[in-house]
Amino acid sequence: MNRLNLLAFSLVFFTPQIQGAGQAPAKPSNDSPTHTAQSDRRGSKKKIMLVNGEGATITLWKPDLSTQTLTLEQNSITIPSTGLNNYHAVVAQQDWGTGKESVIRYEYLSGKPSKQSPSKLTEAVKSEFEIVPDPIPREHYRYYSDHKWGFILRLHGKPKAGIDVTLKTENGSQLHAVSDYSGRVEFRLPEDFPMTLPEGERDTRSAEFAVSAMTTMAGISYETMLTARYHVNPSHWQSSKLGVFVAGLGFLVGGLIGRSKTQRGEKA
């Protein structure tokens, strides 16, 4: 029985500025993860909403690879402060005997410098079958639409080739790829945000996406999902502003040159 689509993360941020803002959570279904549409604010108190996670083993992986067991309360998990500044991973796993599933989410938490590379966390084996960001967005960067992003599939810590991989977005897009000899797939996150804002206006909208896959080995089926938020590509407003700046600079330079020539002509 395929339960993976019922075991999914969505992220809620709790700060006075945005509490109660955004869209209501989507209704759970058998076809897509449950999502919310809150803005990403690193350093805010964070909770993970876990749908149908009763009985799951939930673990917080810290940048130094130490772990902490988390508990599910009313379909939500509070990510505690670890005091470390870097990516952390929340991993939920279910073992059905003949089937195993996992859902993983990487979150950047604030704190003192961890002095650890994010690759240390992504390279660590956190689940028997997992999807790993390759690379994970660096600090102060995000998943953006219309950008290519890579992911690696690993089974028992080794790359898994020839696996069908699906990417779904909260906005309704669905993409497919097959992992190569190194277990890697690439997706260009779709430009599926309704472009309703005036041209050049900063667009801070974001939405959820999920990358999922399944495979079988020795009579056991493995299913895994990686979830994250993606954001509107900044080029939608940065290019317009840059164009206005360049045009303005051209007029300014042109005006200065014309004025200089006029002054030289008057002196002659």
Structure description:
It is a single chain. By secondary structure, this protein is mainly beta. It has a single domain (4-233), classed as Sandwich (Immunoglobulin-like). Helices cover 15% and strands 40% of the residues. The chain contains two helices and 17 strands. It has helices at residues 118-123, 235-267; strands at 9-14, 45-50, 57-61, 67-70, 76-78, 84-95, 99-109, 112-113, 129-133, 143-144, 148-155, 158-159, 164-169, 174-178, 184-188, 206-217, 220-231. The strands form three sheets. Strands 3, 4, 6, 7, 8, 10, 13, 14, 16 and 17 form a ten-stranded mixed β-sheet that branches. Strands 9, 11, 12 and 15 form a four-stranded antiparallel β-sheet that branches. A three-stranded antiparallel β-sheet has the order 1-2-5, with no helix packed on it. The model is unreliable at 13-43 and 240-248 (pLDDT under 50).
